[in-house]
Backbone:
């Protein structure tokens, strides 16, 4: 019977973060479903509510997705009447996006739903515990984000280095 190798502390942390990410994804999906929108809509509306007017490239950066993905999602939100496109006042070549009146109403609904959900989830946490968790999560995010995604090597290049 093969022996199980113990995890190193960083591996244990990674496993915990992955489990947290799955739980958060499931919780977000439940909130989105209750509001009758997609997780993508929920995320973009929340970002635009917090940040105001953005260019699609800036939104893609915040979402950590390719600009083509963000652009498709924004187009759907424009079609749904939740987001408006405009010409940037400072750079007439650039297009910006912002919440429409319907988008702002949905943002308010999302905020209320999240407040209720998080109130239930964290009902037995003190304000100090929530603050400490926030500090730790922000530090984890900053630490992980410091390291860019590795550049994939071409299979042929990898084979040459191992030949």
Residues:
């Amino acid at each position: 019977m093969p022996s199980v190798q113990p995890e190193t502390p960083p591996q244990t942390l990674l496993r915990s973060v992955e489990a947290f990410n799955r739980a958060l994804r499931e919780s977000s999906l439940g909130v989105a479903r209750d509001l009758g929108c997609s997780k993508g809509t929920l995320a973009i509306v929340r970002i635009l509510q917090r940040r105001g007017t953005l260019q699609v490239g800036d939104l893609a950066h915040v979402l950590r997705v390719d600009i083509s993905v963000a652009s498709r999602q924004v187009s759907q939100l424009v079609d749904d009447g939740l987001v408006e496109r405009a010409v940037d006042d400072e750079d007439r070549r650039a297009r910006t996006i912002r919440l429409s009146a319907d988008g702002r109403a949905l943002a308010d609904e999302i905020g209320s739903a999240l407040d209720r959900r998080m109130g239930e989830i964290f009902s037995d946490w003190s304000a100090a515990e929530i603050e400490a968790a926030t500090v730790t999560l922000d530090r984890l995010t900053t630490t992980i984000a410091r390291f860019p995604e590795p550049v994939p090597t071409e299979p042929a290049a990898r084979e040459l280095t191992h030949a």
The two ends are 34 Å apart (CA to CA). Residues 9-35 form the longest helix (27 residues). The CA atoms of residues 46 and 95 lie 20 Å apart. The chain is about 65% helix and 5% strand.
